[in-house]
Structure formats: structure tokens, C-alpha cells
Amino acid sequence: MKLITFTVPCYNSAGYMSKCIDSLLKGGDEVEILIIDDGSKDDTGVIADRYEREYPGICRAIHQENGGHGEGINQGLAHATGKFFKVVDSDDWVNEKALVRVLNAIREMDAPEKLADLIVCNYVYEYSETGTTKTICYKNVFPDGKLVSWDETKHFGASQYLTLHSAIYRTEILHQCGRVLPKHIFYEDNLFVYDPLPLTKKVLYLNADFYRYLIGREGQSVAEATMVKRWSHQMLVSKEIFASHDLVKLKKENPKLARYMYHELVLMMTIASIFTRLNMTDEAEDEVKKMWAYAQSINPAIARRIRYFSLASFVNFPGKVGRRLSIFCYRFAHKVVAFN
Q: Cα-flanking dihedrals φ and ψ of residue 138, to 5°?
């Protein structure tokens, strides 16, 4: 069995995918690299096939009709043979030294009591326009190199979340979860990371800057204009996340994990609210109201707590004046935190 399967969803990625794949090849024969050609119209598929020919037993090209990023992850998971599963977007890459540490850690999991359900690593924002970087680190939350339960974790900071970039799941956990990501929907990676969390009993944190996350490529899904345009995607994903788990029940079973998942749920609902309201239309305002009504119908206690007593309250002031104030709050936070 391979130590880890890397899935690389690609759509018209010919101009930059090689940097990503070459960084993963540093793992040698112990890694599997699944290059998912999502119906690309450029030479992505040709490049994927070339990697498969040149690195047999390591690289595999999978061609599919265009289904979006989530369908690329679905296909990767369906074909994965590695003990762990990691998604690396085609415009990102990994650090070789950190990759070696991840592989060493997985190699040492040679008994059930040593097996992690989730590996967490740091990731680094790479801002292409300014040439600057920003590292998201979790050393204040998890002890480095020690297998722990959620009970042994500490508080996540206000800007700390487990993301596609930081999370490496054991493949079997993802199969147990059974989540099939929606086609043609962006930001579904948040659902991919969030949904399996209650199945994770043991977590291993490696204080290594593993994932390099490029910010600033033209047309990138996290660009503000793109996120505003795709407000309906934000809404759908947030609703799915809200409905995926009963946090009141989970709190009784695993209070620290429930607290973290609430922390992330607040972020998702806040993002969905603000990027929808940034459209500055009555239709958008109605959709925000519908989102909160839906949440209220699923879990009134959690919905009310998030809506009125969390970060989300600052971007959900009612009316046109409230919308302007909410957008001001967002602009201020974006300037301070620089999160995309």
C-alpha cells in the first residue's frame, strides 16, 4: 500500500500544474499521484498522460467530463490506494522537507495504536503580487509530533481553521464518512474537511510548513470578485455544513471537537452572508434571510447563537444601512487579516 495518495484536480492547468506535480514526485515510490483532468480544453490531459508514462506506478492520469473541483476529489478518493489522502490544487505545491517528515510519520504508524485519523500540518500563503508569505501554524493547538485525542487539544485562535491545505485524512475515514461532493460547486472543499471530523479520534500535528497556497492568480476561486459572483455556491455549502452534524449532541460526546466545529461553522455562515450581501441587491438580501431561516429550521439553538452572538452578527445587520455597515466590517477585517 502507498503511504499517501495525492489527488490533483486540474482544469485548464497546463501552464502551472507541473510545478505542483514535480513537488509531489519528491515522495518517490511511496506516494501515489492521481492527476484528475476535469474536461480541460488545453493541454492538461496531454501533460497528465505524459506524467503517467514517465512515472509508472506513481502517477496516474484520470480523465473525466467536466464536473468541477469536487468531482475531481470524488474521483481521486474512488481510485485512491494510499493509507492517507491529500488534495493538492494544481496551482499549489508542497515543501520537500515537510513532505519527508509527513512520509516518515506515516511510515511509523505500523500498529493500530499508532495510527492517526487526521494529520495536520501548517500551510503558507504565497502572495504572487507582492512576493510575501504568511504561515498558518497550529503549534498553540496541538503538541508537535504527538498522537492526541481532541480532549488533549487547546483553543484554536480566531483565524485558525482546518482547511484543505492543512488536513491530511486517513483514507478509510473518508470512506466511512461517505460524503460525495456536489458537482460544479466551488468552495465544496470546506465540506470535504468539515464533514469527517466527528470520525477522527486521534490527531497527529506536525509543525512543518507543508502546503504552499498560491494567492493572486487571475481567475482564482478565492479572489473577492469571484467569491461575490459565486455567492450561491457559498450558500449551498454553508447549508450543507450546517445540516451535516448536530453540534448540541456532539458537545455531549466530544466537547472540544464540538467547540472547534462551531468555530468553523461560524466562519462559513459569516462568509456566505458577506459575499452574498456584497452583490448589493434585494435578491441577495432575500437569500441571506432564507439561509438563516433554513438554519433555524434545522437547529434553532445553534442558528440563533451564530446569528446574534458570534462573528456573523457583525455582517448581518438588517436593512440597507446595516448592509453598508456589514460591508465596512468585512473590509476592515480583510485589510487587517489579509485572508485571500
A: -125, 20
Closest CA to 164 of 238, 105, 107, 87: 87
pLDDT at residue 336 greater than cutoff 70: no
On the 0-12 / 13-18 / 19+ scale of CB atoms within 10 A, 106 is: buried
In total, the chain counts a number of residues equal to 340
The three grid cell numbers given for residue 317, joined into one nine-digit string = 445587520
**C-alpha distances out from residue 250 to 24, 218, 287, 296, 328, Å:** 36, 40, 29, 18, 35
pTM of the model: 0.94
Strands 203-215 and 118-127, by their bridges, are parallel
Number of alpha helices (DSSP H) and beta strands (DSSP E) in the chain: 13, 10
Contacts of 216 (CB under 8 A, 6+ apart): 127, 128, 129
144-189 per-position pLDDT tens digit: 999 999 999 999 998 899 999 999 999 999 999 999 999 999 999 9
CA distance 23 to 209: 14
Residue 172: name the closest of 60, 80, 73 by CA.
80
Amino acid letter for position 301? A
Cβ(253)–Cβ(292) under 8 Å? no
Rounded to whole angstroms, how far apart are CA atoms 81 and 285? Answer: 45
Q: What angle do CA 268, 198, 188 make, to 5 degrees?
A: 35
DSSP string covering 197-228 = GGG---EEEEEEEEEEEEE--TT-TTSHHHHH
Cell of 173: 475515514
CA distances from 154 to 88, 142, 257 (A): 27, 7, 10
What is the distance between the alpha carbons of residues 340 and 334, in angstroms, rounded to a whole number? 8
C-alpha cell at 298: 434545522
Name the grid cell of 267: 466562519
Phi first, then psi: give them for residue 48, nearest 5 degrees: -60, -45
Are 196 and 174 in contact by the 8 Å Cβ rule? The answer is yes
